[in-house]
UniProtKB/TrEMBL annotation:
Pfam families: zf-HC2
Keyword set, alphabetical order: Membrane, Transmembrane, Transmembrane helix
Superkingdom, taxonomy of origin: Bacteria
UniProt name for this protein: Transmembrane transcriptional regulator (Anti-sigma factor RsiW)
Organism: Paraburkholderia sartisoli
Ranges for domain Putative zinc-finger: 3-37
Length: 290
């Protein structure tokens, strides 16, 4: 590991959040790097200072000043418990109405109006809730969240590539025996997306192939797996727009399309235009001869 890989993991190391394998790799680098040793010491001193800091209870004078600044109406209003106890529901012509709503001819018009207002508000709230549920964007599917989490974890761990190679004829055979399908692998250096390697990941309850490409200083992960309609990633309903539309989630751009019996998902922290260009380059790749 180099400094660029270790620096983002120093905080996690200090908090003991790394796996044993990653912790060993980080410590091996720190042992021979003076700059990372200084960075580690700063983090440890800061963490120790925070842990040893005393707890300061807010003084009573502060509470008094806050109470003094409250409006008089708020101070004179009955306690919440008293309001709840006053809210009883006696029977009235088959309906349960709040006490005072139906009391007497003099205020019958006001009572009826108040009851109808409460009923209308309740119905509107119910309809609004159902409408928001029905119109919730499909991009909120758990699969998209799982995909973003997979990409982020790989970048933070420093183990985003299992087979490091720019040669597609080295990367493609590596998946043999590790998957129940053969993912298409192609180097796109000529299009500005050099192949960096690949890895295995676990999404939607199955192993999937991930091809890693570079774009300038950005990493693009391309998830490839068979197009099966009963899976979240292959279901057309899991995507908010047409195939090839770009989605932005938590600062990451995503795009999905289908081709040659496969579902392709690409994700990166680069601009969405980069994914559109990558999709075009992958679709234009030479097809294997029969």
């Amino acid at each position: 590991m180099d400094c660029n890989e270790v620096r983002p993991l120093i905080d996690a190391s200090a908090d003991r959040e790394l796996s044993p394998v990653d912790e060993r790799r980080v410590q091996q680098h720190i042992a021979g790097c003076a700059a990372c040793q200084r960075e580690t010491e700063i983090v440890r001193v800061l963490a120790g200072t925070i842990r040893q800091a005393g707890y300061h209870r807010a003084p009573d004078a502060l509470r008094a000043r806050i109470v003094a600044g409250l409006p008089a109406a708020a101070l004179s209003s009955p306690p919440e418990g008293a309001r709840r106890r006053a809210w009883r529901f006696p029977r009235f012509d088959g309906w349960r109405l709040p006490v005072g709503v139906g009391g007497g001819a003099a205020n019958s018009g006001t009572a009826g109006s108040g009851w109808l207002t409460v009923l209308v508000i309740a119905l509107c709230a119910a309809v609004a809730g159902v409408t928001l549920t029905l119109r919730r964007p499909a991009d909120a599917s758990p699969f998209v969240d799982e995909l973003v989490s997979s990409h982020v974890r790989a970048q933070l761990s420093g183990r985003d590539i299992d087979i490091i190679s720019t040669d597609q004829h080295t990367v493609k055979p590596w998946f043999n025996g590790r998957l129940d399908y053969a993912p298409p692998v192609v180097d796109l250096t000529a299009s500005g997306f050099p192949l960096a390697g690949g890895r295995l990941d676990y999404l939607d309850h199955r192993r999937v192939a991930v091809l890693t490409y570079r774009y300038r200083k950005h990493v693009i992960d391309v998830y490839v797996f068979p197009d099966t309609a009963n899976r979240a990633g292959g279901d057309a309903g899991a995507w908010p727009g047409s195939s090839g539309a770009t989605l932005v989630r938590d600062g990451y751009s995503l795009v999905r399309w289908r081709e040659d019996g496969m579902v392709w998902w690409a994700i990166t922290d680069a601009a969405p235009d980069a994914l559109s260009a990558l999709e075009t380059a992958l679709k234009a790749r030479p097809q294997p001869s029969e």
